[in-house]
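Q: Sequence in, structure out?
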Amino acid sequence: MAKKAAVIYWSKSGNTEKVAHSIKEGLDEAGLEVSLLKVDEAGDVDYFDYDLVCLGFPSYSWHPPKPVDDMLKKNFRKHRSEGKIKPSSPRVPGKFALIFCTYSGPHTGLDEATPAGDYAGQFFDHIGFTVLDKWYVLSEFHGWEEGNVKGRMGDIRGLPSEDDLMKITREAEKIAKKL
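A: Exactly. Output:
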């Protein structure tokens, strides 16, 4: 039986959506059965129906966007009411999560994204999923040219590039083969 994965994402400008599709492609190539869902389509998704849940979003002021935060909190309340949140958060065998966060970092770089990834990862850690990794993907800041060329990250126009996306596909394939 093929292992199942869900790639759940929220994207405003398309950067996170590109990454989500690249992850799906890698997971598909590794033979997983993959559901690709936008956050607004994933409201009733039970993470426990999947071997791997990949959650992606852009960093907004060091935090996931409100629709992602709302989904995480809703699922947290559901899992708590079902008794799935236990003291010391014991690992649930065969249940894994991957967090991916797009960011532009025009002010302080990667440090603008890591709090958002860490925050989202905690929701999975609390239900016993092993968080395999948190990927931070440098991406163009759509609508702010100055932020794209004068920020700490240098010239980020056009990111993520096709090469970046191909690397993400390969890394997703590697992760899937280890499940």
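The longest strand covers residues 130-138.
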